[in-house]
Amino acid sequence: KFSFLVVDQLQKAGFEVAIACVHHNRDFLKAKFPFIENFKIYSARGTFLRDRANNIAAFWNHSPAVWRMCRDFKPDVVIETGGVITSLFVPLLLGIPMLHYCHHPASAYAADYAEQNPIHKKVYLGIVRWLEVFFAKRAKLMSNSKFTAGVAKKLWKLNSEILNPPTDINLFLPK
Q1: What is the distance between the alpha carbons of residues 59 and 83, in angstroms, rounded to a whole number?
Q2: Count of alpha carbons within 13 Å of 173, Cβ hemisphere only?
Q3: Which of 74, 83, 149, 155 has its C-alpha lying 20 to 30 A from 162's C-alpha?
Q4: Structural contact between residues 151 and 107, judged by C-beta atoms closer than 8 angstroms
Q5: Residues 6+ apart with CB under 8 A from 22
Q6: Residue pair 132/156 in contact by the 8 Å Cβ criterion
Q7: φ, ψ of residue 83 in degrees (nearest 5)
């Protein structure tokens, strides 16, 4: 939902928008977000290890969609609003400026349970964290909260600007 909110605001500001996503049902996306008009979706054609290894599957499934989007749409900037920061290698290779809106570093979830993981998962987490730092250093980094900025600072040793997501305050009632 957040990504489509960003799309809506960018379109209202006069920008053309393309979306690269792992979700492979384009009709579902267009039906779920009918307020978004005239956008192109680049999605995964097939999924590899879809429900087996979440972080690595997201990387392998998302990156081809990002590659097609960058090649065909030729964006001026790529904004990553999900958690798959490693797919930013595509715009990095192509010299396209990048912005990563961090909801929470992917490796931080697993780091909370690192002592419970077998050695192969610990090695995998180390690789994921190294890749996250590599790409985060090359993108403009923004966080959705002070807490997330603190996690990014702790894990990645990077500062980020805080941009809180919009909140519908009509949902909250006094007392």
Answers
A1: 10
A2: 1
A3: 74
A4: no
A5: 43, 44, 47, 58, 61, 62, 65, 84
A6: yes
A7: -115, 10
Q: What is the pLDDT of residues 41-63, one digit of tens each?
A: 777 665 554 544 444 555 566 77
pLDDT > 90? residue 111: no
Q: CA 66 to CA 112: how far, in whole Å? A: 29
Residues in the chain: 175
Token pair 């999924």 in the structure block, residue: 47
- DSSP E strand boundaries for 10-144: 18-21, 40-43, 78-80, 98-102, 140-143
| Strand partners for 42 | 20
The pLDDT value given to residue 115: 64
End-to-end Cα, the chain, rounded Å: 28
Tokens for 113? 């349970």
